[in-house]
From TrEMBL:
<dbReference type="InterPro" id="IPR003245">
    <property type="entry name" value="Phytocyanin_dom"/>
</dbReference>
<feature type="region of interest" description="Disordered">
    <location>
        <begin position="145"/>
        <end position="190"/>
    </location>
</feature>
<dbReference type="GO" id="GO:0009055">
    <property type="term" value="F:electron transfer activity"/>
</dbReference>
<keyword id="KW-0732">Signal</keyword>
<dbReference type="InterPro" id="IPR008972">
    <property type="entry name" value="Cupredoxin"/>
</dbReference>
<feature type="domain" description="Phytocyanin">
    <location>
        <begin position="30"/>
        <end position="141"/>
    </location>
</feature>
<protein>
    <recommendedName>
        <fullName>Phytocyanin domain-containing protein</fullName>
    </recommendedName>
</protein>
<feature type="signal peptide">
    <location>
        <begin position="1"/>
        <end position="21"/>
    </location>
</feature>
Length: 190
Protein backbone atom coordinates (compact mmCIF):
# COMPACT_ATOMS: atom_id res chain seq x y z
CA UNK A 1 0.00 0.00 0.00
CA UNK A 2 2.85 2.33 0.88
CA UNK A 3 4.54 1.58 -2.46
CA UNK A 4 1.35 2.43 -4.40
CA UNK A 5 1.05 5.75 -2.57
CA UNK A 6 4.69 6.59 -3.37
CA UNK A 7 4.16 5.84 -7.07
CA UNK A 8 1.04 8.04 -7.10
CA UNK A 9 2.95 10.92 -5.53
CA UNK A 10 5.80 10.54 -8.03
CA UNK A 11 3.36 10.56 -10.96
CA UNK A 12 1.58 13.63 -9.56
CA UNK A 13 4.92 15.40 -9.08
CA UNK A 14 5.91 14.57 -12.68
CA UNK A 15 2.65 16.04 -14.02
CA UNK A 16 3.03 19.21 -11.94
CA UNK A 17 6.64 19.64 -13.07
CA UNK A 18 5.64 19.16 -16.73
CA UNK A 19 2.78 21.64 -16.39
CA UNK A 20 5.04 24.28 -14.87
CA UNK A 21 7.72 23.72 -17.51
CA UNK A 22 5.24 24.15 -20.37
CA UNK A 23 4.36 27.79 -19.71
CA UNK A 24 1.56 28.54 -22.20
CA UNK A 25 1.82 32.30 -21.92
CA UNK A 26 3.68 33.95 -24.83
CA UNK A 27 6.65 36.19 -24.08
CA UNK A 28 6.05 39.89 -23.35
CA UNK A 29 6.57 42.54 -26.02
CA UNK A 30 10.22 43.58 -26.23
CA UNK A 31 12.21 46.59 -27.43
CA UNK A 32 15.39 45.39 -29.14
CA UNK A 33 18.28 47.84 -29.54
CA UNK A 34 19.99 46.72 -32.74
CA UNK A 35 23.60 45.78 -32.01
CA UNK A 36 23.10 46.26 -28.27
CA UNK A 37 25.31 48.99 -26.82
CA UNK A 38 27.28 49.20 -30.10
CA UNK A 39 24.29 50.56 -32.07
CA UNK A 40 24.08 50.65 -35.90
CA UNK A 41 27.37 52.26 -36.82
CA UNK A 42 30.05 51.87 -39.50
CA UNK A 43 33.62 53.09 -39.21
CA UNK A 44 34.83 54.41 -42.56
CA UNK A 45 38.47 54.66 -41.44
CA UNK A 46 38.91 50.91 -41.20
CA UNK A 47 35.75 49.87 -43.12
CA UNK A 48 34.20 47.85 -40.30
CA UNK A 49 30.83 47.75 -38.61
CA UNK A 50 30.55 48.43 -34.88
CA UNK A 51 29.63 44.82 -34.10
CA UNK A 52 28.58 41.57 -35.76
CA UNK A 53 24.87 42.26 -36.30
CA UNK A 54 24.08 38.75 -37.53
CA UNK A 55 25.57 37.36 -34.33
CA UNK A 56 23.57 39.86 -32.27
CA UNK A 57 20.30 38.93 -34.05
CA UNK A 58 20.89 35.18 -33.63
CA UNK A 59 20.84 35.61 -29.84
CA UNK A 60 17.47 37.42 -29.81
CA UNK A 61 13.89 36.20 -30.02
CA UNK A 62 11.61 38.43 -32.14
CA UNK A 63 7.80 38.44 -32.12
CA UNK A 64 4.91 40.47 -33.53
CA UNK A 65 4.49 43.70 -31.58
CA UNK A 66 8.17 43.96 -30.64
CA UNK A 67 10.19 47.00 -31.72
CA UNK A 68 13.64 47.40 -33.22
CA UNK A 69 15.42 50.54 -32.04
CA UNK A 70 18.16 51.39 -34.51
CA UNK A 71 20.60 53.86 -32.96
CA UNK A 72 22.62 55.35 -35.79
CA UNK A 73 24.32 58.43 -37.20
CA UNK A 74 22.35 59.16 -40.37
CA UNK A 75 23.04 55.79 -42.04
CA UNK A 76 20.33 54.48 -44.33
CA UNK A 77 18.58 51.32 -43.16
CA UNK A 78 16.78 49.21 -45.73
CA UNK A 79 14.22 46.55 -44.84
CA UNK A 80 13.62 43.69 -47.27
CA UNK A 81 10.91 41.05 -47.04
CA UNK A 82 10.42 38.22 -49.46
CA UNK A 83 6.78 37.23 -49.93
CA UNK A 84 5.35 35.10 -52.70
CA UNK A 85 8.37 35.57 -54.95
CA UNK A 86 8.19 39.36 -54.66
CA UNK A 87 10.68 41.48 -52.84
CA UNK A 88 9.39 44.30 -50.70
CA UNK A 89 12.00 46.99 -50.09
CA UNK A 90 11.45 49.89 -47.74
CA UNK A 91 13.90 52.54 -46.64
CA UNK A 92 13.29 52.88 -42.92
CA UNK A 93 15.12 56.08 -42.44
CA UNK A 94 18.08 58.21 -42.95
CA UNK A 95 18.20 59.94 -39.63
CA UNK A 96 17.53 63.67 -39.60
CA UNK A 97 18.40 64.79 -36.13
CA UNK A 98 18.54 68.45 -37.08
CA UNK A 99 22.00 68.67 -35.57
CA UNK A 100 25.31 67.83 -37.14
CA UNK A 101 25.82 64.96 -39.54
CA UNK A 102 27.32 62.71 -36.88
CA UNK A 103 24.66 63.32 -34.21
CA UNK A 104 23.15 59.98 -33.17
CA UNK A 105 19.47 59.39 -33.91
CA UNK A 106 17.14 56.46 -33.27
CA UNK A 107 14.84 54.91 -35.87
CA UNK A 108 12.07 52.82 -34.27
CA UNK A 109 10.59 49.97 -36.31
CA UNK A 110 7.54 47.96 -35.16
CA UNK A 111 7.62 44.27 -36.10
CA UNK A 112 4.23 43.79 -37.78
CA UNK A 113 4.79 40.84 -40.15
CA UNK A 114 5.65 37.24 -39.28
CA UNK A 115 8.52 35.58 -41.11
CA UNK A 116 12.04 36.45 -42.22
CA UNK A 117 13.05 40.07 -42.72
CA UNK A 118 16.46 41.41 -43.75
CA UNK A 119 17.95 44.73 -42.66
CA UNK A 120 21.03 46.29 -44.22
CA UNK A 121 22.75 49.55 -45.11
CA UNK A 122 22.97 50.36 -48.81
CA UNK A 123 25.43 53.21 -48.25
CA UNK A 124 28.86 53.24 -49.86
CA UNK A 125 27.56 51.43 -52.96
CA UNK A 126 26.82 48.36 -50.86
CA UNK A 127 30.23 48.30 -49.15
CA UNK A 128 28.73 48.75 -45.67
CA UNK A 129 26.44 45.76 -46.19
CA UNK A 130 29.33 43.71 -47.57
CA UNK A 131 31.45 44.63 -44.53
CA UNK A 132 28.84 43.52 -41.98
CA UNK A 133 26.20 46.24 -41.63
CA UNK A 134 23.39 43.72 -42.12
CA UNK A 135 21.30 41.13 -40.28
CA UNK A 136 18.18 39.04 -40.70
CA UNK A 137 15.51 38.11 -38.18
CA UNK A 138 12.66 35.65 -38.02
CA UNK A 139 9.56 37.18 -36.44
CA UNK A 140 7.29 34.73 -34.61
CA UNK A 141 3.66 35.17 -33.60
CA UNK A 142 4.23 35.67 -29.85
CA UNK A 143 1.23 37.52 -28.40
CA UNK A 144 0.19 38.76 -31.84
CA UNK A 145 -0.09 42.39 -32.85
CA UNK A 146 -1.38 44.77 -30.19
CA UNK A 147 -4.45 46.73 -31.25
CA UNK A 148 -2.52 49.98 -31.75
CA UNK A 149 -0.32 48.30 -34.39
CA UNK A 150 -3.10 46.22 -35.96
CA UNK A 151 -4.65 48.89 -38.17
CA UNK A 152 -5.03 48.99 -41.94
CA UNK A 153 -2.40 51.07 -43.70
CA UNK A 154 -3.27 54.65 -44.64
CA UNK A 155 -4.54 55.27 -48.18
CA UNK A 156 -1.86 55.86 -50.82
CA UNK A 157 -0.58 59.40 -51.19
CA UNK A 158 -2.08 61.38 -54.06
CA UNK A 159 -0.95 64.78 -55.22
CA UNK A 160 -3.49 67.53 -54.67
CA UNK A 161 -5.19 68.92 -57.77
CA UNK A 162 -3.75 72.24 -58.91
CA UNK A 163 -5.87 75.29 -58.02
CA UNK A 164 -8.36 76.49 -60.60
CA UNK A 165 -7.05 79.32 -62.79
CA UNK A 166 -9.02 82.29 -64.12
CA UNK A 167 -9.10 80.69 -67.59
CA UNK A 168 -10.78 77.59 -66.13
CA UNK A 169 -13.41 79.56 -64.21
CA UNK A 170 -16.93 79.85 -65.61
CA UNK A 171 -18.59 83.21 -66.06
CA UNK A 172 -20.46 84.05 -62.91
CA UNK A 173 -23.92 85.58 -62.71
CA UNK A 174 -22.50 88.81 -61.29
CA UNK A 175 -20.24 89.19 -64.31
CA UNK A 176 -23.19 88.80 -66.69
CA UNK A 177 -25.15 91.50 -64.81
CA UNK A 178 -22.19 93.88 -64.88
CA UNK A 179 -21.69 93.42 -68.62
CA UNK A 180 -25.37 93.90 -69.42
CA UNK A 181 -26.00 90.25 -70.17
CA UNK A 182 -29.17 88.19 -70.08
CA UNK A 183 -29.45 88.34 -66.33
CA UNK A 184 -30.84 91.92 -66.44
CA UNK A 185 -34.04 91.04 -68.30
CA UNK A 186 -35.27 88.74 -65.54
CA UNK A 187 -34.83 91.56 -63.00
CA UNK A 188 -37.62 93.68 -64.58
CA UNK A 189 -35.26 96.21 -66.13
CA UNK A 190 -35.95 97.07 -69.80
Amino acid sequence: MKAVRTVQLLIAAAFITAALAADPSPPPYTNHTVGGAAGWFFFDKNATSATNYSDWASKQSFNLGDFLNIQQDDLPVVQRRRRRRKRHLRVLGVGDSGGGFDDPVTVTVPLKVEGTTFYFSDAGEGMQCFKGLRFSIVVGHGRGLPSDLNRPPPPPYRKASPPQTAADATTSQGERFYNGGEGRRGAGVE
